[in-house]
Amino acid sequence: MEDEIRAAAFLWIREQFDAHGGTIPREVLANGFDFHGQKITVIGPAGIWKPKQFETIPLSITTVAGGPYDDSFTNDGLLVYRYRGDDPTHRDNVGLREAMRTRVPHCSIFAA
What we know:
By secondary structure, the protein is an alpha+beta fold. Helices cover about 30% and strands about 20% of the residues. It has one domain (about 1-110). The model has no long low-confidence stretch (mean pLDDT about 85).
């Protein structure tokens, strides 16, 4: 079911991107969307976000310009996202590694 929710989230984000002229308000992302009677949140209070319906792999990662973390962008426009804290076994860090290992897509959100 995670794959279905993830695909629905990407479609919903594209719709919101178009509806809001390319910049989706944080409140819209935080409120999320309905998927078969379940509320799916796209972002939350933590930068690495996994909706309650997901087991391990996050749906989104959020970074902020001038934020407290050493996140950056490559020349290709890809986000280089730093671990949460120093613990490689933290569930968020495990989820990011699993996403990379399995090549499961996630949303990268940049907040200005």
